[in-house]
Amino acid sequence: MTSRAEYCVIACAEAWRDNGEVLASPMGLIPSFGARLAKRTFSPDLLLTDGEALLVGLDGEPEGWLPYRRHLTMVTGGRRHVMMGASQIDRHGNQNISCIGDWERPARQLLGVRGAPANTLNNPVSYWIPKHSARVFVERVDMVSGVGYDRAVGPYHRLPRVVSDLGVFDFETPDRTMRLASVHPGVTVDEVRAATGFALAGGDEVPSTREPTAEELRLIREVIDPKGLREREVPAR
């Protein structure tokens, strides 16, 4: 039986389908498993990095040198696809990882904007949210860190997908607002809507997140994550 965590790995992997030779930059456990699965199966040209100075292969062995200046060239030229997290995200895809509450006196300090503005303006950015709730999917973010479709300019700005523990979302709508693209098996559309702080685009008929193939399940369970760490991030329900 496929677990919820495994559906999430599959959904994250699909973010890099047909990307070609781009630098995959997954931030977090499930996105990292997804990128490695994509490279082992339907996106073999993906480039993986150790995050410091090297391009690495499927098992982490060095395959090439990636100095910071070259990394930045890929970032600013649309040749990287990042999957980040979000403390808040709104219907337009604006992301907040900086603070919660009013900017003048925030209730909570978070990471800060970090590289989110440059990422979202200069290369494709997807998002992974392990605990879907109305506190994360909000009507309006408290501060814009990553730039959404209502604010963006530039030839490389693109938000391919958002993956949560409940489903998959995209912005394939006329006004580029968030749409529920699929629900993970065992999740209802009403459940997703109740956990979202704004009205999602799309109707009541929403497909299920695709099933993994037998080979994909084998790779996840025996090669990519034999210790089952995925189940800690997205526990069985």
From TrEMBL:
<dbReference type="GO" id="GO:0008410">
    <property type="term" value="F:CoA-transferase activity"/>
</dbReference>
<dbReference type="InterPro" id="IPR037171">
    <property type="entry name" value="NagB/RpiA_transferase-like"/>
</dbReference>
<keyword id="KW-0808">Transferase</keyword>
<dbReference type="InterPro" id="IPR004165">
    <property type="entry name" value="CoA_trans_fam_I"/>
</dbReference>
<comment type="similarity">
    <text>Belongs to the 3-oxoacid CoA-transferase subunit B family.</text>
</comment>
<dbReference type="Pfam" id="PF01144">
    <property type="entry name" value="CoA_trans"/>
</dbReference>
<protein>
    <submittedName>
        <fullName>CoA-transferase</fullName>
    </submittedName>
</protein>
